[in-house]
Amino acid sequence: MKKLFALLLTLAMVLSMAACGAKEEKPAETPAETPSEAPAEEAIEITFPTMWVGTSTMTQWWADRIAAFNAEYAGKINVKVEEIAGDQNYVDKMKVLYSSNSLPDAFAAGGYNLIDSMQDQLVDLTPYMDDELKSLASDLCWEVNSRDGKIYGVPQARQVIGYFYNKDLFAQAGIEKPAETWDEFFVQCDKLLAAGITPLSMDTADSGWVTSLMLCAMVADSDAGEEFMNTNLPKDYNTPEFIQAAANIQKMFQKYTTPDAVGGAYENAAANFFMEETAIIANGPWMVSDFYDTNMVEEGFAEKIGCAMYPGGVMYNSGKIGFNVASKDEEHIQATLTFLKFINSEESQRLMLEMTGDVPAMEGISSDNVKPQVNEVLALGDAAKRSINDFQSLWYANVVDEISVQYPLLAQGQITPEQFAQALTDAAAKN
Amino acid sequence: MKVKRWKLAAFLLPCLLLFALIYLIPLGMVFGSSFFEWKAGGVFNFIGLDNYINAFTNDPRMITALKNTVIWVLMQSTIHVGLGTIIAFMLARKMRGWKVLRTIYMFPNVVSAAALGVIFLNVFNPKYGLINSFISQITGNDFVKNWFFDQNSAFITVTWSWLLYTGMIIIIVLAALLAIPEDVLEAARIDGATEMQLNLQVKLPLIRTTLGTCVIVAATSMLREFELIYLTTQGGPGDLTINLPLYLYKTSMTDNNYGYANMMGVVLIVAGVITVYSINKLFRMNESDY
Question: Is the pLDDT at B35 greater than 80, yes or no?
Fold first, then answer.
């Protein structure tokens, strides 16, 4: 009896394991069973991981666009979406997939430059450029997504970034208009301090986005600096402009910002600005929608916010790394391009401008539903004396990461601006 | 009952196959690739011991990570286990409410590391954190300290997030204490042993192997510690709180230097084996006293 029971138990286990491991097979359809029906064409599945989830300003736009795409291409193209929250997590995941040669069909790393480090696995889109695709972005945007004459990314947005300031807090400190030189900027910071207002929102985590925007804008306040800030993958940060800018950042950390800046992330910096604890934050127009979100700010906050160009007439004004394609065969490349043409269509870009404030890559897109600050930023971009690209697009990924390691040391005077520049140079040398 | 060899082999085979597939083969790959320059973009060259030589002679971050890892292993093996043992001895007296206390001590062990990290970030927040607010209340002055990112406090603040939470050690030691045969204790009492003597000279030696287990658990947990550091300081300020697992992660994920990262993996495995072997010897883990 015992033996029989054991035998039955073993049999049951084997069968259940076989059932678990068995590949799910679709019942074979023979022509005899469906003689009058043509064989149904199977939808092509393409993969796309997105960081536009949760509190991302792009979440709503993405939900709208993917729903519209699915409705239009139902049964033809199926986009398998994987949600990855957080820029850094997204980039890290792409690196893991790259190392195992399993990048998704398309990915968009929110402006992070993955072209240079993953070029060998990306599809050269140059042969696929038709009038429709070309018209989706300005030449400037295509240029940022190209290497040695080959196109590796479909642009989605332009990068136009200045800084935002709180007009009420400026008025309390007796400041009439944003500074035109960095000397004047620091005088204004002193005035704000004297009025009991913390001048700047800053951060160090996740490459210290807000802080680094200030750093690079200061670097670009000269011809040599402007050239540096338009150089792809710089190796040497030991330049007078960079060291001077790092010295100013050190001063900002030590004198003009909040106690949670060191170690804090963008969210902390933004929260301080939203709560009117700081007067200035550097960021792009995608932040504007938050100025009107009463879940984040008090009613009427948006009316207090002005936009400014960085001293010296500097603006981040360039193309942005867009969607990269890494499909493995022609069928998937075509399906992915169809998806990207839809996602970057004129309608999609107009909706992006309206819903997120992000500046379209296509020229001439406008809307009456755009928040006034977005138009202000765009006007400032057009009026800039010096146009630069941002560090996340230009610098090596490990240099961008090293910034977060070195900022706290710089802030606390543990290293000098020269050592800061050398640390980034050392990081760049590892590539 | 004698079990036939083929039956033994048949039942062990799936487990052995899984072990080989999930642990042994990847372990061999980690070990093998640590002798290669293996970077993103298809770079894969044999370089012998260069990764190891470079790590120990030319990489200050590696030395800091190794030093921090060793310090945390030592602190966890001594302070953490010692504290847990003392609390377990107190709870073993079964004073009023001991079961409630035992449960309370376990709380940090049942909260996920991600949640703990966020809790600590808020508790030590320089602007609105509990600690700064408490000190401000007591002193009457505005107290501002960036605990996690100040050079003077970062290391100890990160250490704080695991050192004092000894729930697991308490549970293990308490179980061992409660399992000591009553007649042994009774005999000691008849011989005139005081409570202190009973604890130090009878109970403590009797739970030696349990303490050894606790030390192994504590020490190896520090060889694996990653989440709390990543969620709080990410190894900063500078490299002040970096450890080997975090450096391995950064080398692999940020620098895409997989060969060098796998070298660190090998160093960690070797450190783990040495640690466990030493503790086994120190606590004579294969000898039982009763």
Answer: yes
Q: pLDDT for A216-263, tens place per residue? A: 999 999 999 999 999 989 999 999 999 999 999 999 999 999 999 999
CB–CB contacts below 8 A, A to B? 67
Q: ipTM for the complex?
A: 0.80
Asked if B236 and A118 come within 8 Å (Cβ–Cβ), the reply is no
- Sequence-separated (6 or more) residues with CB below 8 Å from residue A208: A202, A403, A404, A407
Domain spans of chain A, in order of start:
44-155+323-360, 160-317+380-429
- Which tokens hold the place of B245? 């697992």
Q: Is the minimum CB–CB distance between B127 and chain A shorter than 8 Å?
A: yes
Percent of chain B with pLDDT over 70: 99
Residue A394 has pLDDT above 60, yes or no: yes
Cβ of A404 and B41 within 8 Å?
no
What is the CATH code of the structural domain delimited by B52-282? 1.10.3720.10
Q: In angstroms, rounded to a whole number, what is the distance separating the alpha carbons of residues A261 and A238?
A: 25
For residues B49 and A239, what is the distance between their CA atoms, to the nearest angstrom? 36
Q: What is the dihedral of CA A34, A39, A41, A42, to 10 degrees?
A: 60
pLDDT over 60 at A140, yes or no: yes
Q: Which amino acid is at B131?
A: I
Torsion of CA A84, A87, A93, A94, to 10 degrees: 110
Tell me which chain A residues have a C-beta less than 8 angstroms from the C-beta of B236: 204, 263, 404-405, 408
CATH, range A160-317+380-429: 3.40.190.10
| Domains of chain B by residue range | 52-282
